[in-house]
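subagent[fold] <- orchestrator: predict structure for attached chain, return tokens only, no commentary.
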Amino acid sequence: MSLEITFLGTGAAYPTPARGASALVLRREGQCWLFDCGEGTQTQLMRSHLRAARITKIFITHLHGDHIFGLPGLLCTLSLQSSPDGSKAPVDIYGPLGLRSFLWRSLELSHSQLLFPYTVHELVPTRDQCPAEEFKDFSGLDRAEALPQGPPGRVLHLDPAEDSYLLVEDEQLVVRAFRLFHRVPSFGFVLEEKPRPGKLNVQKLKDLGVQPGPLYGRLKSGAAIVLESGATLHPADVLEAPIPGRKICVLGDCSGALGAGALRLCQQADLLVHEATLGDSQQDKARERGHSTPGTAARLARQCRAKRLVLTHFSQRYTAGHAELQQLRGQAEAVLDGQEVMLAEDFMTIEIPVKK
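subagent[fold] -> orchestrator:
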């Protein structure tokens, strides 16, 4: 089962000919999940090998313009390229409180009518996710006026016990969000595949008189079987240890993570995507603006024992291929004792192999 991410925009603040604004796509089983949608994302999609029509879920880390200004336009373009289909599943959009109003008003004021349904699931932030003077309570938006045509969706509150938000869960995977500190409330997202059953001990089965066939499938699926002798054989008797699933962590803009949820959820991540807007020599400036440096990102990766760290969201002063950009890599690798760190580039694709 393929699992890969493609960076569409790796620059901070605004798009340039060299770097697009923040956006990346996770592709799994033919579906595309978009994380952030800065201005120009739809153009970047057209230049990539990805198909925008395959987007089924969108995750927005925070409400700064360089992460959301491309969203209304992308949805409108997807609508122009589609035909009315009442049976089509809605595109699920997840993001901070206020995102529903932003989308609804943008589409309403521009007289844009989408030919497909969409839902907006809003994460209610906590006040400590940004400086007190920057926090804005959007819970009362549109309370005084009805939104008869506004998109449906859930309002998701922090689970205090888990210190996270449960967004998606099915038989194969779970997606959670955790809190970050930035100039506005920001979030990180963790996609984790559930463990797969371990391999069957075929020799042991044959010794017990169980030949290859449907019974093997029942054991693999977790069901017990009854042998000819009348004894019950449980899956645990013949299955090796479960095979861990893959885990990808995508963090929004931040100067650090809040609470224990982030460290717990990101433990042993196969891939950790973290912003590094400015170099370590400008750490005070980065922290003042709610951003991270390579050292900040690497320290989190070390705490989480992440297997791969990818830096992104670079200040536009660091042009692709510039020597100063390579210094950012070195600053992170120094914290990780030489472990290789990757610098994200637009249209770079990283595959996360299946564990065996």
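orchestrator: received. Logging for downstream: The two ends are 12 Å apart (CA to CA). The mean pLDDT is 93.
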